[in-house]
Amino acid sequence: MKQLALNKRSQVKNFKKKNLVTYSNPDSAISDQFQTIKTNIKFLTEKRNNQIFLITSPGIGEGKSTITANLSVSMAQQKERILLIDANLRDPIIHTVFKLSNETGLTDVLHNKTLLNQAINNTGIGNLDILTSGNYSPNPAELIGHEWMREILKQLADSYDMILIDGPSVLKWTETRILANLSHSVVLAVARGKTGMEKAEEARKVLELAHANLVGAIIIEK
Fold it and tell me: Alpha-carbon distance 23 to 188, whole Å?
């Protein structure tokens, strides 16, 4: 990943998708790796408050969503208030990982069908709350690009110490570039052996064009 010239790199080894290991086995070696990633993010944001982090990947099926879920649990086990937002409106998975209902979520708030505070789920895991994707929307890019999305993030930033956004593939869907621009920082999840360096470099360039603050990469080793 040297070609990306990122500030920080972190690796998660022997990671299995759809496994909330930071909750089920907090003393494991993998959980310890997430603690390291959390510490790296702390160093990156030590002079800022209410950071909004987008986690995306070059392609699909690379384990990004489960990485984001585990990282949010690791962060929430401290005293900080953490919000995880599933902004992958085309193929959401966060509600499945945490076994939550997805009847009400982000799309419903953006469509003014429900109030923001009514759409947020308390997980009971530390200080972790989750805003699921919500009901299917036929045009995710248009919905994410609405000014109301920016206002929602501003409101939430006043209530949480950290907001993690699970976004779709940056090379596949245009709304990810919008989310990158709305976020304070972006982290790229890269699956070793699946994501080629060309795709990783292409993702970096796309994020750069979106004026995103790409601060690091999480390299997933399965």
Answer: 23
- The residues facing 122 across adjacent strands are 129
Query: Which tokens is 73 given?
Result: 């649990």
Are 98 and 69 in contact by the 8 Å Cβ rule? The answer is yes
Task: Please name which of 128, 11, 26, 30 lies closest in space to residue 72, comparing C-alpha atoms.
Answer: 128
- Angstrom CA distances, 180 to 19, 22, 71, 122, 213, stand at 26, 26, 18, 25, 8
User: What's 75's domain CATH number?
Assistant: 3.40.50.300
Domain with 79 in it: 2-221
Which pair of tokens denotes residue 194? 């699946």
Phi, psi (deg, nearest 5) at residue 42: -60, -45
Residues of the chain with pLDDT below 70 are 1-18, 45-50, 193-195, 222
For residue 205 the two structure tokens come to 């360039």
Structure tokens at 204: 């970096």
* Cβ pair 17, 63 in contact under 8 A: yes
Q: Number of structural domains, the chain?
A: 1
Whole-number pLDDT of residue 9 = 52
